[in-house]
């Protein structure tokens, strides 16, 4: 959660509140009650659950704790929609979230409206700590907007009818990007981590701290689908030498042969997306790959993954902390790679796997209380991803952001950028 | 399927068609799209799937095969809604049925209307083999009506809100039944199995054949909840000596301590039903028990389960092949046991586990073609249940009926009647 | 256990005791400590465990219960070597039997010698009930002699070196058997089950009871390897229509393509045995097949499996209740089929799967106490096999014998004989 | 493997060869064939396999590749005893290692003698690269000496008889250590990693590189059993707030309540060791704990785990790179903690979990060829442990050593030392 953060204008928070909440509604507008209810795997949650959980977060940590006289919409919802906050008591088992055909989508929307009315009504009277929790709640909701889309994508991918939620891309001639350039990074002592002067950061992004970098370079753009097809065709998925041992076990145990959602037909590779099944665009960054695949590709390409410090240090020089991100209810889709002699597509398009394990920054301490469970307790077994994706809501990306997933997970818009030692 | 069966009146079939199809609609009328979509376990299917599958059966084996020029509603439905007919080609994996948020419940209802229009329009012109398939399809739909209810019950039982689909019973004073009487059965050679003269029977109910019975008696009524509580309180679930070896492994592995849907509170035992959570009625037959539990109870009671031949032979003397069965969209609920010196509650209330494995009757041969897969291929590992339950549609019970489930399964309305050697 | 059985001569029992115990020693003589310790799967037990368990059985039910002043060899052995007698208290978990590197094989042999000395010393003074328990213990040990060999076979089959425990067969020209003949069986009422007049029978073999048979015939000999190869080559393992539904799931889930221990090479099919890897003999009965495979084969051959009553009734006419059985420490190996117009190879060679579920004979009651757990509690989910195999000790076969295994199990010497309705 | 390393004297290598190989023989001298054959879990290997595998390593990478005319002892052993070197071809499945009752322990000892004769005979003629591989092979064997002991401990712990391999400790009065002191560490830039000037290091220990340290301190000694009991008694294993999320799942899923091998009785806590079951010594360092437990303890103690850089930097000041390590065939047993104002027990006693994920040091590149698989491919999902244990052979510990295990594993002698920010 925010450690040091000051609000400029009260109006901004209300405006932001309305904007974030409205985007969630817009993203879920095309869903049926059934679409919003089913859980496709234990890692994913139903859309209805996302809608309710982010609302429970605001209801609990803001309304319950900071607004006198607030009456909860339904006292049973705390059990249903707490995700993992042990301090908040017993909760419904994660893998059973898809059993909740009741309450209905309509009831959940009424829940949202109830909380929105109470919260916007109270916003003007909230003190700074409570306002900081509102901001945290909105950042939290933005995270769930991305998960909501990737969870829906996973669900729809399991339907043999392969339904599309959004319109398909217009057919356009593909311009393959030129060769990959190497951009030299800083060497020696650098500073990374959140410095407490930005508008918001999660607790795990700080503290600001020093790191040492060796001579190295980053690729100017992410690896493309076209390059990935070359990896496949060179036997990349069948050559043990490229793979981490755990990755090789995963490839063999799961029968992995391509990125998630890819299929091969006589017409070539296709991928499934929220716009249905479409041809793979060879110019666009590869996505829906695991850390294991990213690491194997880098090994095959005689390169390596960047460390988090290398990536974040390089990102400090990128002018626009923005890119191809989510602006509204449309299909998230990575855009073709760009040529150029500077770093491109650092923010947006695809989350970039780093070679850094998700462990605390030096000096990190979790916040006290339930919100302190937000990040710190997940710091084992996962890897850091940087930069944001085409499904990350605009405004939610920053250089210090630390996304994290297990090395086999790939239902997010995950890709990679190569690095090498100089 | 029916082996020898003649239609009396064409009108009857049409009338029956409309009645059976209408009951399915009525049973599912209270469901939301989400209620109808979720699959609660691999053994159960979503209501939407039941609605579509029974329709696919009629569409495929009647309209496609016997009505020239019929155009299928959607050619992709054959893949989605074939259950297990290998001869009909590839199909959607059973445990993935709950992923089908599309087609929607509304679309499935349109599918039903489409097939109903085509089939009732063609019915007058169908030849006898096709008409026999319509009858088979209706019997098949009746089976799924019962499964639909028990699958919904299982789904709703996993919702911590414990929603009720139907109204609750009115509170009434409980009259505990008097002592159990033993009704002597036939001895020596008897004939059981379907004799081909009834209005309909599934293929596995025949052929008619001789069996030898030893001196024995059946209890005049099923075991009640009150008696079951005595078994629990006597440590029945903790005493290995009562149990089959596989059953003891199941009790210990799953931590079984009571029938499915039962909970113990300070006020005593309650059970969950389609009318929500209610007190256990000690006068009603116990239900939602596995074969393992039924066998352990019988062992504890120094009795045994009846064989299928004993049960069916006894049932031949019961005047009304009917009882507390399903008549419409209301909560299925076993009725209190009756006193008396004759067999009571043989049909309806609860399916009665027998001690007979579900194996072919002597001389059984499966029908050729896809419908021949209806019963024969399930003849390993399962036990026969007789009589029908409160969720069995009226008209669907008969003495030769062979229901079958694995010995650990108990989400049906399953109970037991004791037998003993004389 | 024996229900009605009288000992002719005291000397016979002692002689039998020495002979049975000596055969066990002879069978295990070629084993190293390691060979005797490892457990290859939960269904199998280490040889050392078999050696100790049968000894514990005699020590417990005879010496402890009937010989005053007997001191157990080691009081901790009751925990280690009780198999499944719940009435005898807590015991070592079955799947952990292979962890017992101590006590050593040498210590277990000392345990056997200790019990043998005590028991043969006491034998002359034992009363009839105790003597019946000695007989039961010897029959029990004979069962374990067969399991010991099949468990060793399974263990050695998992060793890439494929070691042979016994010498290989001499190469001999193969005489393929002539065509299969059908031998008509009895029709109408027959009597089967143990009649209490034989020298010994397990409790589950009785009581003697009537059964009704329809017109039918049995094949004069078991199905051969050569016939099985024809089944394989005709796509038998890839055609769903032949298979029970559970069987088809097993074939696909486990990737089954041939009997256990078979491999295909350019030179044709080979099988692994206690004599190492050898060519499949097309004239010998097929073995190491599951009930699922046997049933699928019968379906493919447009026949069926015999019922237990058909098989046992037919066996009553076979003169010699004996055949190719185990006589000493040599490789058990089914012998080539014989021509002829009468039933051949009914006893010995391979256990023959019947289509009958292993359920109690009418009127069966388990014996009281721990030995009552011997058979009755296993009466769910398994099928009956009849006749005995090449690994069944001579003298241990009889027509009423009921062997039983789960339908997927096939590490015993299991085969089949076809039946058909007339 | 060694990247830069020069041999001083040829004689030393031969001497070292004999010493290392002899220790392995001595450690396994008390084992029976069965003890040496059984595999107690997939993570562990049989002693016989360790004996053969380290020999295969020398035979393959030294004798086969560098000694002309060498004839392998048995060409089938490459399949049996390759551990994980994909470049060396197909190999026996890891979890099936316990099925190898043949070759016998005696044969494996003959294999060792054969390779020893060939290798010591050739040693004088080997060039430096081959001599480096001999050194690597000996370091490799030392690693397996420790695994051999911990794998045996695990195996014997599963035997209800709880056999002791070595003599028990003499009962002695326990002196509880005084309070824990905090030793301030270096701040700012430090250098860690192997600098290529030592006598040997594995490839993953380098390259030497800079790291930045914040103000911090390390505890002067590891956490003791007595302190751990206080953690247990304070509900440490039942308080979610102390635990990493994955750790809490592990504690609940596995029912963890104490370190591995601990049991509670009326007389207090005992632990199982290679000296049998003994009372827990409250003065000795806690051992057989997972990273999850170590992290939860640190959280409870309001401290944290040291990073690898903090630990290694501190260790550079410790005079004796040695401690309570393995010197011969005796029971490894952590010694009571020492008081003092300097770091104690840094080397030996227990491996100390760090909070650092096992990832490559900056600039790391794996060696080419099969030996390059030695370390690099395991760099995901595991954590670094430092310092060595009472089961680490003397001479095998050094500050740059990077041991690594998954966060749930605890069958090694693993413990922890607290750290804190200043």
Automatic annotation (TrEMBL), chains A, B, C, D:
Residues 17-146 form the DinB-like domain. One of its GO terms (biological process) is ergothioneine biosynthetic process. Residues 188-316, 343-420 form the Sulfatase-modifying factor enzyme-like domain. Pathway: Amino-acid biosynthesis; ergothioneine biosynthesis. Gene3D superfamilies: paralog of FGE (formylglycine-generating enzyme). Keywords: Iron, Oxidoreductase. This is Ergothioneine biosynthesis protein EgtB. It comes from Sphingobium psychrophilum.
């Amino acid at each position: 959660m925010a450690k040091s953060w000051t609000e400029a204008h009260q109006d901004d928070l209300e405006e932001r509140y309305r904007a974030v909440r409205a985007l969630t509604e817009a993203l879920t507008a095309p869903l049926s009650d059934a679409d919003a209810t089913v859980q496709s795997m234990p890692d994913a949650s139903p859309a209805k659950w996302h809608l309710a959980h982010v609302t429970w977060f605001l209801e609990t940590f803001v309304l319950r704790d900071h607004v006198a006289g607030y009456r909860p919409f339904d006292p049973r919802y705390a059990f249903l929609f707490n995700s993992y906050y042990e301090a908040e008591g017993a909760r419904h088992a994660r893998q059973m979230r898809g059993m909740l055909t009741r309450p209905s989508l309509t009831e959940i929307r009424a829940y949202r409206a109830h909380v929105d009315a109470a919260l916007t009504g109270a916003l003007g009277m909230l003190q700074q700590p409570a306002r900081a929790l509102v901001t945290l709640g909105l950042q939290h909701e933005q995270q769930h907007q991305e998960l909501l889309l990737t969870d829906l994508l996973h669900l729809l991918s399991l339907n043999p009818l392969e339904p599309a939620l959004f319109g398909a891309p217009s057919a356009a001639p593909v311009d393959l990007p030129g060769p990959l350039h190497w951009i030299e990074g800083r060497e020696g002592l650098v500073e990374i981590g959140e410095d407490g002067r930005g508008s918001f950061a999660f607790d795990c992004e700080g503290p600001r701290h020093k790191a040492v970098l060796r001579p190295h370079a980053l690729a100017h753009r992410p690896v493309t689908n076209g390059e990935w097809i070359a990896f496949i065709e060179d036997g990349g998925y069948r050559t043990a030498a490229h793979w981490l041992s755990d990755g090789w076990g995963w490839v063999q145990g799961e029968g992995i042969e391509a990125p998630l959602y890819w299929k091969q037909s006589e017409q070539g590779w296709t991928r499934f997306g929220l716009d249905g099944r479409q041809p793979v665009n060879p110019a666009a960054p590869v996505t829906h790959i695991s850390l294991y695949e990213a690491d194997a590709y880098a090994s095959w390409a005689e390169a390596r993954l960047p460390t988090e410090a290398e990536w974040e240090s390089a990102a400090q020089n990128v002018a626009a902390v923005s890119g191809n991100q989510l602006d509204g209810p449309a299909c998230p889709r990575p855009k073709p790679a760009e040529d150029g002699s500077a770093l491109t597509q650092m923010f947006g398009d695809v989350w970039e796997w780093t070679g850094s394990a998700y462990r605390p920054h030096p000096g990190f301490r979790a916040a006290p209380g339930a919100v302190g469970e937000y990040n710190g307790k997940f710091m084992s077994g996962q890897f850091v991803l940087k930069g944001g994706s085409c499904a990350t809501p605009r405004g939610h990306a920053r250089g210090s952001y630390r996304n994290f997933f297990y090395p086999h997970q790939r239902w997010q818009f995950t890709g990679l950028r190569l690095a090498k030692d100089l």
